[in-house]
Write a structure and sequence with these properties.
Helices cover 22% and strands 28% of the residues. The chain is of the alpha+beta class and 159 residues long. It is globular, with a radius of gyration of 16 Å.
């Protein structure tokens, strides 16, 4: 963990000793989770098959800070490249938009106010690492973040 990091259990911005803004940490249930700079998505490619285990599903919900639309738009290509290597773990996801936003066609990325991703991952740490290293997170796009395990009921995941 970065020595200059200042924990912030509220999921909001804080300042480290150098005066730089720290991104919000993800809330995971009632505890606050720290992030490390590690994660190797390539090693996860065949992990579930090798172990013969069914992966757990996790939801990652992130809300943007107000007034960040232009920054999000500028970072979108880098975020898309970063996210591409994780696509085998992502069940579904998309941008959060305000009620009344027309989503029937192409949407200007500036209309997105956050995102939601559902992962099949070996553990919560894999999702935390994805979030921590995402260019959007590193560049301070998010105001809040939530990671929770999901017990999928509908549709039946085994059907």
């Amino acid at each position: 963990m970065d020595a200059a990091f200042t924990p912030n259990w509220r999921g909001s911005w804080s300042r480290n000793p150098a005066g730089e803004a720290n991104p919000p940490k993800c809330r995971t249930g009632r505890i606050q989770v720290g992030f490390g700079p590690f994660f190797v998505p390539a090693m996860l490619a065949g992990l579930f098959d090798e172990l013969g285990e069914k992966p757990m599903r996790y939801v990652l919900i992130r809300k943007d800070r107000p007034g960040i639309a232009e920054r999000r738009a500028a970072l979108q290509p880098e975020h898309a490249r970063y996210q591409a290597e994780f696509l085998p773990m992502i069940v579904f996801g998309g941008g959060l938009v305000a009620d009344g936003t027309d989503t029937s066609g192409e949407l200007d990325i500036r209309k997105v106010i956050g995102n939601l991703l559902v992962f099949e991952a070996p553990d919560r740490a894999a999702v935390e690492a994805f979030h921590a290293n995402d260019p959007y997170t590193r560049e301070g796009v998010f105001e809040s973040c939530l990671i929770e395990a999901v017990w999928q009921r509908v549709p039946d995941p085994d059907a």
